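Q: Entry one of two.
A:
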Amino acid sequence: MRVMTGERFSEVIRMTPGEAVAFARAAHDFNPLHHDAEFAARSRYKKLIASGTQMAARLMALAATHYSARYDAVGLDFSIRFHKAIYGDETVTLEWEVMRVTQTSAQTGDVVELKGRVLNENGELAVTATGRLMVTDKS
């Protein structure tokens, strides 16, 4: 097996309001909570929040980047659940843990099952995720 159960990897990122706005617009998420500071200030959040698509994309990108450094890697499926809003000016920690590794039926690679999460800067659970990737030796 190429990947071992229990392997963990993470990334700490500092969100900025400008990045949150740019990502929401690029993703065509026009919810004003993500790009209109005045609107967000009047909301229950009191300031801009990051789009859920941004956190989902960052989690998937972390897994892809981590494994593609050593292997040919492709995502098979991901599931994301949002628990708390992430503010546009917050430092967050993205984490993945390998829960299971299964050799593909053709025995040419491994299917890696992951459990992930995003913690806000107070250490509170903001996002949970599961994912599966297939990794093979680099061509």
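Q: Entry two of two.
A:
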Amino acid sequence: MPFKKLLKSPFNVFRIAPPIPEHYSNKLTYDELVNAESVYGRTIFGPIPAGHQREFFEHRKNIWIWHESWTDVSGQIINQTIRYEVRPTGVFKKAAGDTYRKIEGKELDNFVNAAKTYLKLVKINLYN
């Protein structure tokens, strides 16, 4: 399916955010909801190595964040954050200090699968 058609699809994973149930919306802040959702997002990419922290979540409409941090052998904390922007022309990736670049092929497939899995897990476990 061409990417533009995917964006216009009524089942588009990038534009359908899970609904926030009424009983949550008055009690939890946006940040608390993102933190609750990222609990499921961090599980998508397999086991988290000891000493690592991982987050994957939809920051806002069409903006996705993957973050991982760990302490290296010298004791220095390493942070890696990647921002994905879903645009009508494709999905663009930006790491800290880099410029945006369009992702394609297997990398695009992996991102789409991760986003679909995230939305499914969040919907089933938090909003069902």
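A: Comment on entry two: The CA atoms of residues 58 and 80 lie 17 Å apart. The radius of gyration is 16 Å.
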